[in-house]
Amino acid sequence: MADEDPFLWLEDVTGEAALDWVRARNAETLGEMSRSERFRQLRAEIREVLDADDRIPYVFRRGEYLYNFWQDAANPRGLWRRTTLAEYRKDRPDWEVLLDVDALATAEGENWVWQGASVLRPGFRRALVELSRGGADATVVREFDLDRHEFVEDGYQLPEAKSRVGWISEDLIYVGTDFGEGSLTTSGYPRIMKEWRRGTPLSEAVTVYEGKLEDVAAFAFHDPTPGFERDIVGSSPDFYRTEQYLRTDDGLVRIDVPEDARISAHREWLLIRTRSPWQLDDRVYDAGTLLAARFDDYLAGSRDLTVLFEPDASTSLEAYDWTRNHLVLTTLSDVRTELHVLTPTEGWRREPMPAGPPLGVAQILDTDPDESDEYFLSTSGFTEPPTLRYGHLGGETEVLKQSPARFDSEGMTVDQYFATSRDGTRIPYFVVRPRAEGGPTMLTGYGGFEVSRLPDYSGVLGRGWLARGGTYVLANIRGGGEYGPSWHTRAMKENRYLVYEDFAAVAQDLVERGITTREKLGTHGGSNGGLLMGVMLTRYPELFGAIVCQVPLLDMRRYHLLLAGASWMAEYGDPDDPAQWEYISKYSPYQNVHSGRDYPPTLFMTSTRDDRVHPGHARKMVAKLRELGYGVRYHENIEGGHGAAADNEQLAQKWALLFEFLWSQLKY
């Protein structure tokens, strides 16, 4: 079928013919949008939000310092910096700049984008810094001296690849990268993990684990906690299963849990979160249960497990975070956040912890599991700006930082409703309405990979949509994690259609409740949410007045052959298997474009440098729609990676394009 595709040439990411096509489409779209004074205002106001110097500079602790990565108008590519807690308490902390990415990019003539750093613990003197060209997933790795504020000459370095690195000690690291033929999986990630000793060439690194070619990726990490040092290696056969082993002097010891369970270790404890029902002896643990065991006892054969959390029909476990002596659970009850503190004593003592606003979100941002019971907690809501709190469990809590409001929310209302999907399942969604009625409505969702969409604050959304009179709707459809793993697994592979029926049900419910009309209902989504938009366009076009489809998967016949696509077959299925292609083909947007349909106006947006979801998906879809006479718009950012923007200027333009398109098409 691929041979019959007349637009296959658009998959040549940097081919001159393909880029000429991209430039022509960009010129058309920007030429149309930039004529609008509203577009220019949107771009300026969003840039102001993104660059605001009174934003909360979120931090994470490493040793005595709090680290932050900061971007603003003067530093579009960003500053990696640190300060002390005492300084951070001040309105204007004194920051110690470690790395100026803009200066580095200028000096080296590269469009570097910050992708993070792994700091050595204990000691916290060195870091493995990752930088990408234009925001791609593939990075270069360089060792950085935190005391001298410079890269280490003759230190650890890796060329551009989708590498995995991690400290073992100052003179030894784990490395998985492109070692040559056969060293990467079919998904493009490391298949082989090695120990690399300082001062030796990479070719002499010692293999400690090899996964299979068809695995998603291999991994290895070292836990340096004094008295509990451990090395765990393994691989992921697919996106949701892992095989994990403890490295010992006698070889590898398998950590015997279900392959789809998630495990983590903290000091003497092993935590196991189930993803499917697990029968152990005469007990069945439901999907989404969190269990605790003593690590060494479990590996020795004991199955003495304590249930720390058990889901019910409305409540799921969203996250869990260790401090030195406590475990904080973040749960969702009908997508409303609750926090609980568990303390291992003779049993496990459980106490509630204050959370955020009723229809908002509370999130543990960082803890200090090595040394103390310190935590940083962020709370916000659709109309409540973020507040950053600091404290120690069992002690007082202080407000460290509070963001000013980015838009006037006076008179706005936030409500939660439930739509009924085609099979009778109740689908929750949030509605944020402005003071005045009659404006357009923007609906969004994701519905995949067990990702929860929560009701937090967005100054960009507030300025670009809500403050201008738009209504915003967030749908918590199946495929996500809002009700635990089963909310996701119910909508995988052959049941993928449930995701789309859920979203369509929310769209219909909005009209039936009188919240909006079809003509004033727009929708947007990206990545897996871009696939959702493609299905809405081709299967439910009668529900929407306009659609924005970002960094999308669309050609599901070839997705597994493009970039990281093979790693998602556990989510969508294998299109090379005729039985699986049978159900995939029913919704694959690229294969379901037809002439003579009443498709709503649609804007497709992607990035040339997206090396996760191939830009060919969006390019080919637009080319096919154009050939059939549909007036679709297209914009492709040359930089930006999977986020489709490498800096705040590009991000502001991306959002301004989205908002301006919806405002103009929804006739407001």
Could you explain how this protein is built, in words?
The protein has 668 residues and is an alpha+beta fold. Among the domains are: 2-48 and 406-665, 3-Layer(aba) Sandwich (Rossmann fold), CATH 3.40.50.1820; 267-311; 313-404. Helix content is 19%, strand content 34%. It has 13 helices and 39 strands. It has an eight-stranded mixed sheet with strand order 32-33-35-34-36-37-38-39, with helices on both faces. Strand 28 and strand 29 (374-381) form a beta hairpin. Helix 2 runs antiparallel to helix 13 (648-665). The radius of gyration is 25 Å and the shape is globular. The two termini are 42 Å apart. GO terms for molecular function: oligopeptidase activity; serine-type endopeptidase activity. One of its GO terms (biological process) is proteolysis. One of its GO terms (cellular component) is cytosol. Residues 466-667 form the Peptidase S9 prolyl oligopeptidase catalytic domain. Residues 4-219 form the Peptidase S9A N-terminal domain.
Write a concise synopsis of the structure shown:
With 668 residues, the chain is of the alpha+beta class.
The side-by-side strand order for the widest beta sheet comes to 32-33-35-34-36-37-38-39
CATH superfamily of the domain at 2-48 and 406-665: Alpha/Beta hydrolase fold, catalytic domain
Q: Which regions are unreliable across 5 or more consecutive residues at pLDDT < 50?
A: none
Q: What is the makeup of the main sheet? A: 8 strands, mixed
Number of strands: 39
The overall average pLDDT, rounded, is: 95
What is the CATH architecture descriptor of the domain at 2-48 and 406-665?
3-Layer(aba) Sandwich
Q: How would you classify the helix and strand content by structural class?
A: alpha+beta
The helix count comes to 13
Rg calc? 25 Å
